[in-house]
TrEMBL record:
UniProt keyword list: Amino-acid biosynthesis, Aminotransferase, Pyridoxal phosphate, Transferase
SUPFAM superfamilies assigned to the protein according to its UniProt record, in alphabetical order: PLP-dependent transferases
Keyword Transferase: yes
UniProt GO BP: L-arginine biosynthetic process
Organism listed in the record: uncultured Solirubrobacteraceae bacterium
Family: Belongs to the class-III pyridoxal-phosphate-dependent aminotransferase family.
Molecular function GO labels: identical protein binding; N2-acetyl-L-ornithine:2-oxoglutarate 5-aminotransferase activity; pyridoxal phosphate binding
Protein name: Acetylornithine aminotransferase
EC number: 2.6.1.11
Pathway noted in the entry: Amino-acid biosynthesis
InterPro entries xrefs: AcOrn/SuccOrn_fam (IPR004636), Aminotrans_3 (IPR005814), Aminotrans_3_PPA_site (IPR049704), Class-III_PLP-dep_AT (IPR050103), PyrdxlP-dep_Trfase (IPR015424), PyrdxlP-dep_Trfase_major (IPR015421), PyrdxlP-dep_Trfase_small (IPR015422)
Cofactor: pyridoxal 5'-phosphate
Alphabetical list of PANTHER family matching this protein: ACETYLORNITHINE AMINOTRANSFERASE, MITOCHONDRIAL, AMINOTRANSFERASE CLASS III
């Protein structure tokens, strides 16, 4: 559909023109059920009325001032995010990868020259630092040399304990790995990472860009584990559809980054911050989290009953299922024939990331569309 886009994405031949809640419409007016949400971005649903209203109101007031000054939506958002999570400070970014970059710079300044320990299957973004923390040959190899002193180990207690020493700056992990196909790290692994970091003075950083903001049935996924990280990254759903990310620290790392250490022209702008407040009004609600857990259980139960589904895994509304057949082909047919938007994370894995505002009817509808092709 365009010869003028650099071809970094193998796009489907669909052009979306409008969205509302869990529905999308293409340019020809066909209606789709969205169980991907632009990869866990539109968690409040498309064009949530409160988000749209907040954007319109802020657009009439002020769009940009930059980071040499304060703006009220940003300062209030920092307070809201910090008090609702690790209790330290917040650095705003425009994307997930940038939040990871900020976390890596913080870790390296905290322990100068230190090693960053990551785990196999992890995904942290496409910029150089984030890519260096993403141990996948196909993504890294064409862009070598990467940032020095990143080491990837198996996502197990033993491997992480063995990799962390007095030269480690940070351990960076997802509580549940998203891009590798929804694989949770065990509590045992997370506890071992916490212990190893404590013992050696390294920072434990959780990348909650995909797992955070209610997706797994609590505001942050770490709340359902026995471990609290020293810093956390978020992005994706935070802006209700607009681009914003953030790095949060706990009190221990709150003052590591000082004036001049890092920056961003756009980050924390009043428009995205206003949208984020409206999105958080929806995503912080414990009643929503309870619904996410209920609907997630229903989805996993229904999927497990389908012939041709060989495994189902996930937490809350972050789920994946395994098929015997070709998952990328199934996802393509789900989109083009059944008008269900989903995503293949591997040759046999289909990932489902619906809006958190769906109901039983949408869960059952999605399962029926999948069943029709199995
Ligand atoms: C999507 C994602 C990123 C990258 O975010 P971008 O906004 O695409 O840069 C990093 N980490 C995790 C866990 C993600 O899911």
């Amino acid at each position: 559909m365009s010869d003028h886009l650099i071809q970094t994405y193998a796009r489907y031949p669909v052009e979306f023109a409008r969205g509302e809640g869990w529905q999308l419409w293409d340019a020809d007016g066909n209606e789709y059920l969205d169980f991907l949400t632009g990869i866990s971005v539109s968690s409040v649903g498309h064009r949530h009325p409160a988000v749209v209203a907040a954007i319109k109101e802020q657009a009439d007031r002020l769009l940009h001032v930059g980071n040499l000054f304060f703006n009220a939506p940003m300062t209030a958002l920092a307070e809201r995010l910090a008090t609702g999570s690790l209790g330290g400070r917040v650095f705003f970014t425009n994307s997930g990868a940038e939040a990871v970059e900020a976390a890596l710079k913080l870790a390296r300044k905290h322990r100068r020259g230190g090693t960053i320990v990551t785990v196999h299957g992890g995904f942290h973004g496409r910029t150089y630092g984030a890519l260096s923390a993403t141990p996948q040959e196909s993504k890294q190899a064409p862009f070598a040399p990467l940032v020095p002193k990143f080491t990837a180990v198996a996502p197990t207690a033993e491997a992480i304990t063995g990799a962390v020493d007095g030269d480690t700056a940070a351990v960076v992990v997802e509580v549940i790995q998203g891009e590798s196909g929804v694989h949770a790290l065990s509590d045992e692994t997370l506890i071992a990472a916490r212990r190893a970091c404590d013992e050696h003075g390294a920072a434990l950083i959780f990348d909650e860009i995909q797992t955070g903001l209610g997706r797994t049935g609590s505001l942050w996924a770490y709340e359902q584990t026995p471990v609290v990280p020293d810093a956390l990254t978020t992005a994706k759903a935070l802006g209700g559809g607009l681009p914003i990310g953030a790095l949060f620290t706990g009190p221990k790392l709150a003052d590591v980054l000082e004036p001049g250490d890092h920056g961003s022209t756009f980050a924390g702008g009043p428009l995205v911050a206003a949208a984020a407040h409206a999105a958080l009004d929806v995503l912080e609600d414990p009643a929503l989290h309870a619904r996410v857990n209920e609907l997630g259980e229903r989805l996993r139960e229904r999927l497990a009953e389908l012939p041709g589904v060989v495994a189902v895994r996930g937490r809350g509304l972050m789920n994946a299922f395994e098929v015997e057949t070709d998952a990328p082909d199934l996802v393509r047919r789900l989109l083009l024939e059944q008008r269900l938007v989903s995503n293949a994370t591997g040759p046999t894995t289909v990932r489902l990331l619906p809006p958190l505002t769906i109901g039983e009817a949408q869960v059952d509808d999605a399962v029926a569309r999948i069943a029709a092709l199995l």
